[in-house]
Write a structure and sequence with these properties.
The chain is of the alpha/beta class. It contains 9 helices and 5 strands.
Length: 235
Amino acid sequence: MHQIDTIYTKYPTFGSRRMKGQLRRWYDLTVSRKLVRKLMQIMGLEAIYQRPDTSKPHPDHKVFPYLLRHIAAEYPNHIWGTDITYIKINGSWAYLVALLDWYSRYVVSWQLSDNLQSGFCVENLQVGLEVAEPRYHNSDQGSQFTAADYINTLQRHQNIKISMDGRGRCMDNIFTERLWRTVKYEEVYLRDYSSFADAKQSLTHFFHDYNTDKPHQSLNYQVPADVYFEKIKLA
């Protein structure tokens, strides 16, 4: 599963047929397409984009429309995006959620959890809202983000507009998808976490460096924290 995760992070358009071939090329693993398809289903991965099994909608939860089709982030806290990805820890899985400011690429808050209950997403949102309040909050339609406690937390802030991706549309939340690619290639795949505490400590260092010491080409080689806080001061 780790090898499939690695390939999918680089090639999110791969289905089971191409995944089978890439497993053979990269890792000299000969497995049946049926097994590859089964493992991809377990991980919640499908061709076009990578997605851990974290975005299943709840039939009783309200879904909000996507509001950002013709809107670009123009200043810090204009648009926040959130998403969940999975992290391998000593043979098991943990789940990572983050709130990303789309304008500055600044990670406002993040949380690591050993389960997919909505509580850690609500806690992450509460931490983020102690920092600032976005104009738009965008997520997928996963049950964690449509849960009543999550939506109620957002709606207590009347100026926040709630936006949700269309089903199967990774491009609606592309900045957060790019963040996960960076996290995987520059942190997760370079580590061998021995425990949940080890992973959390290492990710703490990573996100600090990401925010304060990693220049972004899209930011004219400035770091996210400088753009985020300097623009807020100017405003």
